[in-house]
Write a structure and sequence with these properties.
The complex is a heterodimer of chains A (about 170) and B (about 400).
Chain A lengths: L1 E4 L11 H18 L5 H15 L6 H28 L10 H6 L2 H11 L3 H11 L5 H8 L3 H22 L1
Chain B lengths: L2 H15 L7 H11 L12 E3 L11 E6 L28 H9 L7 E7 L2 E10 L10 E8 L2 E10 L9 E4 L4 E8 L5 E5 L5 E3 L1 E4 L6 E8 L4 E6 L5 E7 L14 E6 L2 E7 L5 E5 L2 E4 L10 E4 L13 E7 L4 E5 L5 E8 L6 E8 L11 E5 L5 E6 L5
Parallel strand pairs in B: 2-6
Antiparallel strand pairs in B: 1-18, 3-4, 4-5, 5-6, 7-8, 8-12, 9-10, 9-13, 11-12, 13-14, 15-16, 16-17, 17-18, 19-20, 20-23, 21-22, 21-24, 22-23, 24-25
The chains are: A mainly alpha (about 170), B mainly beta (about 400).
């Protein structure tokens, strides 16, 4: 008369989530961080938790990776939207990049990352997926849930905005 | 390549290199994956884990078993050869959880598939009979796997110990407000109707199960509802009936009489004895209790299931109660490893002691073959009971 938890059963699905986790979890944490998540680990863990629940419906490892990447982007976007609302209700905001990080990042990197943080979320996502994860336009489109044409446009406009922001600093 | 693009790659890589990761992240992600399938209603025989304040629950894959009360003469038993035939063999299209369950309790009869609406959602159910390894003497088990389209809500359970005619063999939960009740009944039955409070009725399904002298039935109704199941033959005559009791409500936390067992999360894990003669555990983040009254069994184990307290996710720890005279108790896993803990005094005159807490290593799970072991003060084993036999 008992229930028996079997986390090991997670290994028996179509997608071996634990293997994907071992290989990709740090990357997802970093992706969430670069997209501006206030708690990147929380985002990445939630993304994998959703993958575990979804794994039976995913056809293969590639689909699983696309799913967690996409979920991470969506979660960060939602989280930042929530934080923006929360900040409107509090007198003081906080910097995108913590002071602790700031002293560890080179000055030129800091300017660029600050400009990146100021981009609209979709453009920021496109830039990070393109220049950090080196995803193709097709992979980016799948991750972001938009067309390849939109991806191209977001990257182009993001780069323009970053260029303008950096020129303004000079 | 533009300068901006070069600088971007460099800056992003530098920033990313500063990020560290939690070594326990996998366990936390798994714990989250279980919690989110709320609301999950537990069958009456399951150890209950319920939220207190935060969003807390446990879901995921459950392999459960319950021992039925009494075996009566004409219980289900294979009437044909128990050798495998094509319809009892593993199917490549099965979800991994079902394939794993079938490996553990190999079917001795062909599978019975049936669809049933529960909570307005079409569920698919596969049922089979088999013997729990090492416990063949307990009789056939009726096993069920159910799933819903579009969701990973695989649920597996087995009931065994005799499968008497007309007896509710087991109940399976959906992750909504209705349960799918399944069991066995007399061969003459061709239909089942659940009579619900207020005069409502709901129709179920009765199917033949090749190789056993009984039929399988399934019907869905709300978890918090009692019902009387009426089984009829092809001529519409009632051949048997079965009363399904209302699910006991979530116990309220008593205001006095608690015993702090051990520290868990932000405070003690408390044990209370309820008026229903049951032990209920409360802690910061949830509660756990048994549906079996103490008068029926004085040996029990429970788990916290990796709850999230008000401030953090807590590890899954095992604990329970045992008869007085027990000095130590714990669990032996299928691979032979034992994890035990000392005992804590219970209420005077109760005949009980509590044992625990036992923390299993990360990524360690209990299995069908796990055994609860109790010891006396000299270190001699008092009892070794597979956990599938006890609550």
């Amino acid at each position: 008369m008992t229930d028996v938890w079997r986390p090991s059963a997670l290994e028996t699905g179509a997608v071996p989530v634990s293997a994907l986790f071992r290989a990709r979890y740090p990357e997802l944490v970093r992706l969430a961080d670069l997209l501006g998540a206030d708690d990147p680990e929380d985002i990445a863990q939630e993304a994998f938790a959703r993958l575990i629940r979804k794994q039976r419906t995913l056809r293969d490892q590639d689909a699983a990776l696309a799913y967690v990447r996409s979920t991470t982007c969506n979660l960060v976007r939602n989280r930042r939207r929530h934080l923006r609302v929360a900040r409107l209700r509090t007198p003081a905001g906080h910097d995108e990049v913590s002071s602790e990080h700031a002293v560890m990042v080179r000055e030129d990197h800091r300017e660029l990352l600050a400009a990146l943080a100021a981009l609209p979320p979709r453009r920021r996502e496109a830039i990070v997926l393109r220049y950090w994860l080196d995803l193709s336009e097709r992979e980016m489109a799948a991750t972001m849930g938009v067309s390849p044409g939109t991806v191209k446009s977001l990257v182009s406009r993001g780069l323009d905005a970053l260029g303008q922001a950096l020129e303004g600093k000079v | 390549m533009s300068t901006v693009e070069d600088r971007l790659r460099e800056a992003l890589a530098a920033r990313a290199a500063q990020t560290s990761v939690d070594p326990d992240a996998w366990n936390k992600a798994v714990a989250r994956s279980r919690r989110r399938l709320l609301p999950w209603r537990w069958p009456t025989w399951a150890v209950r884990l319920t939220p207190v304040a935060a969003v807390v629950a446990v879901a995921g894959v459950v392999i459960s078993a319950t021992m039925l009360g009494q075996s009566v003469g004409q219980g289900a038993s294979p009437t044909g050869p128990s050798t495998a035939n094509p319809s009892t063999s593993p199917n490549a299209s099965w979800p991994g959880t079902m394939a794993a369950a079938v490996r553990q309790i190999p079917p001795v009869t062909p599978f019975v598939s049936l669809s049933l609406r529960a909570d307005g959602i079409q569920t698919r159910n596969s049922l089979w009979f088999g013997y729990v390894p090492g416990h063949k003497a307990a009789g056939l088990a009726l096993c069920q796997y159910y799933s819903k389209d579009g969701f990973y809500t695989g649920y597996i359970g087995c009931a065994y110990g005799g499968l008497p005619k007309g007896t509710l063999a087991r109940q399976a939960a959906t992750d909504g407000t209705a349960w799918i009740h399944v069991g066995v009944t007399v061969p003459q039955a061709t239909s089942v109707t659940a009579l619900l409070p207020g005069g409502k009725t709901t129709e179920g399904t009765v199917r033949s199960a090749h190789g056993v002298a009984t039929k399988i039935w399934a019907v869905s109704f709300k978890a918090d509802s009692a019902a009387t199941l009426i089984f009829r033959d092809a001529a519409g005559h009632q051949v048997t009936r079965l009363n399904v009791p209302k699910t006991p409500p979530t116990p309220s936390r008593p205001s006095t009489g608690g015993i702090p067992l051990f520290h868990y999360g932000n405070g003690p894990l408390w044990a209370y004895r309820t008026s229903g003669d049951r032990i209920v555990y409360w802690f910061d983040g949830g509660s756990s209790w048994s549906d079996i009254p103490l008068s029926q069994s004085k040996l029990s184990w429970s788990g916290t299931g990796g709850f999230k307290s008000s401030t953090k996710t807590l590890p899954n720890v095992m604990f329970g109660y045992a008869p007085t005279g027990t000095a130590r108790a714990g669990l032996q896993l299928a691979d032979g490893r034992r994890f035990t803990a000392g005992t804590i005094s219970a209420w005077p005159g109760s005949g009980l002691v509590f044992w625990g807490p036992v923390s299993l290593p990360a990524r360690t799970s209990l299995d069908f073959d796990s055994v609860l072991i109790t010891y006396d003060s000299a270190g001699h084993i008092l009892r070794e009971v597979p956990i599938i036999f006890i609550q």
